[in-house]
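Support request, please re-run this one:
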Amino acid sequence: MSSPDRQALIQTIGHTIMRWQDATQKYDEAVGRIYDLNASERLCLSFLWTGPQTASAVARQIGLTPAAVTALIDRLEKRGFVRRKADPNDRRKVLVEAAEQALRLTETAYLPLSVEGARMLDKYTDAELETVAAFLSDSLALQERMAKLLAERPALSR
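Re-run finished. Output below.
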């Protein structure tokens, strides 16, 4: 059974998450405007921070066709954001990795946010941080699951 205070707290958390998502999107859109990157290009660069990826993995991650992702990688490579390299385990494969311009973007646009975020987290105990980490992990899994369900639904006709 939930108390009214608990329900109010859950509603506050939900509202704050929506505002945080909006603020994150606005921040990323501002980065995109400054660096002339569209949403797919930003998603590609974000995905590459896990390490070099095949073009097909990039396409799956950001929801593009192979032809569209090839054009995206070509654009980013021409501007110095990514580079292609041979897969060390299979010379027939090509990997895409973040390049110098992506590193500069991270240093100027995202490193300051990371530093300030770390300072903000310093005020929490280890136990509180473990709770936050678990909450964020659960929230990410929920968001990904719900996005997958939405992607499987047919579009509404206008």
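The two ends are 42 Å apart (CA to CA). The mean pLDDT is 94.
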